[in-house]
Amino acid sequence: MNPTQPPLRIGLIGFGCVGQGFYDIVQRQPELGLTVTRIAVKSPTKPRTLPAERFSLQADDLLTDPELDLLVEVIDDAAEAFRLVSAALRQGRRVATANKAMLARHLPELVRLQAECGGTLLYEAAVCGSIPVIRTLDQYFSHEPLRAVSGIFNGSSNYVLTRMGEDGSDYGPALAEAQAQGFAETDPALDMGAFDPRSKAVILAAHAYGVFLNPEQVLNLGIEGVGAADIARAAAHGRKIKVVAGLYRLPDGCVTALVTPQLVGPESPLYAVDREFNGVVLEAEFAGAQFLRGRGAGGHPTGSAVLADVLALRRGLRYGYARQAAAPAVQLTQGLAVEAYVSHPDVGALREVLTWLELPPESLRTDEHGTYATGPVALEQLFAWRKELRANGVFVARLHEVPTAAAAAHAWAQGTAELV
Fold first, then answer.
1. CATH, range 8-122
2. Mind telling me the catalytic residues?
């Protein structure tokens, strides 16, 4: 820091896990020249680590405070976050946010507000915690064609799957442990249902391909129906089950996006990404494959990403969205299929699921772990039945990655899927 430069005055909106982590990091590094001048919170009675007089109950007061140089928004209410962030951008303010659900729903409007009003919004902390994937895409790979961007974007579900594999336990006990360790929320639906990684995939699509996706139109299947038999069966074939979010450039040049469990083998860098860690694989046309791994959640890892955005805002950095002008067409489900693994503890129910997904009866298989099915399933069928699959505890996983070459696509569509 320049000793003659005054400290950057920050208004912090939210003082939960990420807000406290960011505040702690700033306090430990006075040489950065940052000061959290004001903090806004929602609840006046919640126990906190700072004296009550440090907090304001009116976040709007921070928006109108001319003494603040920039704002950091880290609350968990997506609607309120959008109201505050959009209002700040209309004032031409600089803002850092970690709210992925808000960004996934409103990113086109937020980008427009920045262009029209002169404000700046950075949001590295919204995707994969400490991993600098957004800035890597926006700056380093801004003009290189990308074949795919995929990975494990949610540490909570990854922790549950890891513990099931380590202990041979079922889903319920592993989820309870994740909640006790603070890696899963009391209401785990957003994480376990793959809604959280869906939001992150939507955000990355804007930077990887210049496309703004509607999250409600992106297929997301979670792990609520996974059982110990599924984990054991995958392990018997040398694989692990991971929730993989992916953006893929198809042979026709269109881009697709989906988030589902996937059986991953040791040839993938995601195989060794366990517990609460995240991992991102970037497949570039000329640079080849790149792999980023780091903690995907937690106060300090995510707080460090917020800090990186704050320092970047001070330097005047803005996202370029360089690909937006030549964004490809989007093909989310139509004409696409995956080699699917399908399971349910009740064989009769599983037979009914096969009719939903238009799989023939001979798709059923039986081994020492029980009965399951494999076969090619249209993404349109998975999307159409996604709510019923979730409500009935059906577990569906991809056996392979989405192909990015015409030959692979043809073989994949014509063949019968196997677990090996």
1. 3.40.50.720
2. 200
